[in-house]
Every structure is written in structure tokens, then in C-alpha cells.
Amino acid sequence: MIFKRVLGITSALIVTLGLAACGGTETEDSATKSIGEQLDYKIVGIDPGAGLMKLTIEDALPEYGLDKWNVIEGSGAAMTAALKKAYDKEEPIIVTGWNPHWKFNSFDLKYLEDPKGVFGGAEDINTIARLGLKEDHPDAHLLLDQFNWEPADMEEVMGFIQDGTDPVDAASRWISENEDLLSEWTKGVNNVNGEELTLLYVAWDDVIASSHVAANALESVGYEVKLVQVDAGPMWAGVADGSGDAIVGAWLPTTHAVYYKEYEGKFEDLGPNLQGTMQGLVVPAYMDIDSIEDLKE
């Protein structure tokens, strides 16, 4: 059985897609249509390199027998723009979603139940360091090993960024308001004099937030940090080949499982810096649908 994807969709195009057959007031025609018919069997996704996309396309669709459904590839920003457009009009929409994410603070959303467990349970976000970082930069290694926060902390930074604050300024603001956590992260860490570090990150809202906060913490003890945005594969490859010093946005054990397995033995896993994440298919709470299995109707 072949499952199709709509490739190369731009942000602007996703926003303008006719994702629903009805607006806030249902017509008689739309009321008789299934969710699939209303949405033209489209799920709004994110970038094609994301593990969540792989799980949706290669696992969830075939496991639930959703052979009519397609997943639109785009970006996190395009997904949230499409979600906002539909939400403002109370139209139906299904997106690939995860939290921590600011959209759960901005909209009343719910995960579709996943009785087959395709998307797994809660994941952790781990810090991954290149081999030799502890020997080359022991104080950076210690700080990154002690870097740990809660989903609510991350969502606060994400909220600043979503409201228009530059990620660098958002991280600085959050750090200034949470010096107690900074003190925990820098406990036992010596000040350095301009040693250079490179952090790699993907352009996901949560990873943008965590990477800039980690960079700010490292800069507070004297490091010069270069933040380099790449796709998920190159992010892991960069740490494995030593061109990047660390990443703080490794979703495990599911989302980045393929990269973890591919490069295992070529990096150091410092463990979770955040616990209690979730991912799956997300819809507005006003939609009368509760389970992925309902999409077969």
C-alpha cells in the first residue's frame, strides 16, 4: 500500500490552502461530510527531516489504515500559521504537533488518542556532546551536563519569541528572571576567557529556545558561542564528526532514534535536559473527534 506526501509546500501556500469545507457556521453539506472529506484527507506537517513526520507517514498512516490521507511537508512556522488561520475561523484542521510548544498556550488544542501507541509515550530532550568535549572544555561540559529545566520554562521562552522578541534577547530576558536556575547550571563551573564553542540546532521552536538559553548560560561564564542552524541529520552528523561541540535538542528515544543509532559511539549522551514531552496528531478542542482511528470514517 502506497502513502502519498505533498512535497515542497511553502509557508505561504500552506496558509492559503483550502483545508476545510466549512467555516465557523456549519452548512448542511459540511455537516454530512466526514472529517477526511472536509479536510480533503490532508494533515498539515512540518519539515520532512523531522522524526515526527517519519512516524506519521511511515508508521501512523499504514498502522491505522489511512490510505486516503496525505501529510503536507512544510515547516513548523507554516504549520502554526495554518493552525491559527483555521482556529480563528473555527474550521477543522489536523496538524502534527508536540509539546512543549507555545501553540498549546495560545490555542485550546487536544491530541488525538493513539490506541496503537505509534507515537510512543512521553519523550525526553537530551543534551548530546562531541567526544572529547570534556577534555577540551571541562567547564562547558559540566555546565551542559547540569543544564536542566521544565517544560513551562521552555514554553515561557518560546512565548517571548512568538511575541516578536529576538531569540537572543528572549534567552537573555529569561535568564535574567531565572538566576536561581542559572546558578544551578553553573555550580562548580569556572569562568573562562573567550573559549569558542559551537552549538548546533534545528529550526524547531523548542530547540531554538533551548539552544539560545544554553548559549546564554555558557556566555555568562566567558565562552564565545556560535549557534549554527542545520537540519536534524546534519545536526547529529556535526556532533559525531566534531564540527559541532554539542546539541541540546535531541528528542529521544523516538523522534531522533534513527540518528542516535546511526552515530552511536561517536558522541556522548549527557542525558535529559527536559522531561515530559509529547507528540502526535493535534486538533482544536472544538472538533468532534477524539482518536486517530476516527480518521478512517
Automatic annotation (TrEMBL):
The keyword Transmembrane helix does not apply. The keyword Nucleus does not apply. Residues 34-177, 197-296 form the ABC-type glycine betaine transport system substrate-binding domain. Keywords: Cell membrane, Membrane, Signal, Transport. It is found in: Cell membrane. Residues 1-20 form the signal peptide. InterPro entries: ABC_Gly_betaine_transp_sub-bd. Transmembrane segments: none annotated. PANTHER family: GLYCINE BETAINE/PROLINE BETAINE TRANSPORT SYSTEM PERMEASE PROTEIN PROW, GLYCINE BETAINE_PROLINE BETAINE TRANSPORT SYSTEM PERMEASE PROTEIN PROW. This is Glycine betaine/proline transport system substrate-binding protein. It comes from Cytobacillus eiseniae.
